[in-house]
Design brief:
The chain has about 200 residues and is α+β, with helices and mostly antiparallel strands. The chain contains eight helices and four strands. The structure holds glutathione. Glutathione (GSH) binds next to helix 1 and helix 3.
Length: about 200
């Protein structure tokens, strides 16, 4: 059994979608970031960064417990453990890695930066606009990709889709204006968002 420490943010959703989609049994341990539950000594012992998500798999590799932070590391762990949602064909893996990294290291951190600026006490509009523009540019590139491909990394759904979906869904909820005008991306998001495992994962 896996314990998932998370909240309903893009990073929390990413990890939970991975567990749900990979069919791994887990217990959700909600973490209230506003109350600082991610900064307690117990939490910091799991992730010294004091950030969700974290999983503890009590039956990790070799039957030993393992603790993992970083939402994309959790996605990869879930895919490896279950043997699901990453291409087995070596020729498809470079596009898969690229898609996964774009979703996890371009889209989501830029979104986090936008949130950090607009939620700050004295938001600096030009800086917010700059990062929003960067975010929209990533979405534009994804829109072009999804005009030609069914899924983020090709013709099969993968954890790259789950990573991208977590960021996109969160952006749609908080800064919908930044997500307007991308029909192919929206077609893809409608399909990913309708998956039962994804729907379960979003209910925090
Ligand atoms: N790179 C990390 C980022 C994790 C992260 O930024 N978590 C946020 C919520 S989305 C958090 O816990 N923020 C609270 C804090 O930093 O104090 C990941 O992918 O898991």
């Amino acid at each position: 059994m896996i314990d998932l420490y998370a909240a309903g943010t893009s990073n929390g959703m990413r990890a939970r979608i991975g567990l749900e989609e990979c069919g791994l049994a887990y217990t959700l341990k909600p973490v209230d970031i506003a109350k600082g539950e991610n900064k307690t000594p117990q939490f910091l012992a799991m992730n010294p960064n004091g950030q969700i998500p974290v999983i503890v798999d009590h039956e990790g590799p070799g039957g030993k417990p393992v603790t993992i932070s970083q939402s994309t590391a959790i996605l990869i762990y879930a895919a490896e453990k279950s043997g699901r949602h990453q291409p087995k064909d070596a020729s498809k893996r470079p596009a898969f890695w690229q898609a996964l990294m774009s979703a996890s290291t371009d889209v989501t951190p830029t979104l986090g930066t936008v949130f950090g600026i607009i939620r700050g006490k004295d938001p600096h509009a030009p800086t917010a606009d700059m990062f929003k523009g960067r975010f929209r540019n990533y979405l534009k590139v994804w829109d072009d990709v999804l005009a030609k491909r069914k899924y983020a990394a090709g013709d099969e759904v993968s954890i790259a889709d789950f990573s991208l979906y977590a960021g996109y869904a969160r952006a749609k909820g908080v800064i919908p204006d930044a997500c307007e005008g991308f029909a192919h991306l929206q077609r893809w998001a409608d399909e990913i968002g309708a998956r039962p495992a994804v729907q379960r994962a979003l209910k925090f």
